[in-house]
Amino acid sequence: MTAPQDQRHLDIADIKRRYPLLEVGEGAGVRLRRSGSHRWQGACPFHDDRTPSFFVDVQTERFVCFGCKVRGDVIDFVRMREQLSTVGEACASLTQSPPPVSRKKQAT
């Protein structure tokens, strides 16, 4: 059995490049503030967080919460935030909207 020809192939690396974690997280309502040269910090969206324990590293495009111990990339973030079962569902959810404007592109 083959996939329908009109179904587009989702390239995960391309999705990760087009949808930066910082912008996707802020778009999902996570309030982040700079906490170093390439780290951003805020309250974790995955548990009741009294002190900010959620960190986004814009160089590695990864997040970690030192409170509830979740970690991952932009696809993991969307999958957990929207309570999706698979990576494919998270990729489809991301690609339904246009890529956010990157802070790096706004500065130039």
The succession of helices and strands, N to C, reads HHEEEEEHHH
**Looking at the structure, what is the overall shape?**
globular
Question: By helix and strand content, what is the structural category?
Answer: alpha+beta
The overall average pLDDT, rounded, is 87
Radius of gyration: 15 Å
In order across it, which strands form the biggest sheet? 1-2-3-4-5
Q: Low-confidence parts lasting 5 or more residues at pLDDT below 50?
A: 1-7
How far the N terminus sits from the C terminus, by CA atoms, comes to: 48 Å
Portion of residues within helices: 25-40%
Count of beta strands: 5
Q: Could you characterize what this model shows?
A:
With 108 residues, the chain is an alpha+beta fold. 33% of the residues lie in helices and 16% in strands. It is built from five helices and five strands. A hairpin with a 4-residue loop joins β3 (54-57) and β4. α3 crosses α4. The longest helix has 9 residues, at 87-95.
Top keywords for this entry?
108 residues; 5 helices; alpha+beta; disordered N terminus; 5-stranded antiparallel β-sheet
Task: List the SSEs and their pairings.
Layout: H1 12-18, H2 21-27, E1 32-34, E2 39-42, E3 54-57, E4 62-65, E5 71-72, H3 74-81, H4 87-95, H5 103-107
Antiparallel strand pairs: 1-2, 2-3, 3-4, 4-5
Brief description of this entry?
This protein is α+β, with helices and mostly antiparallel strands.
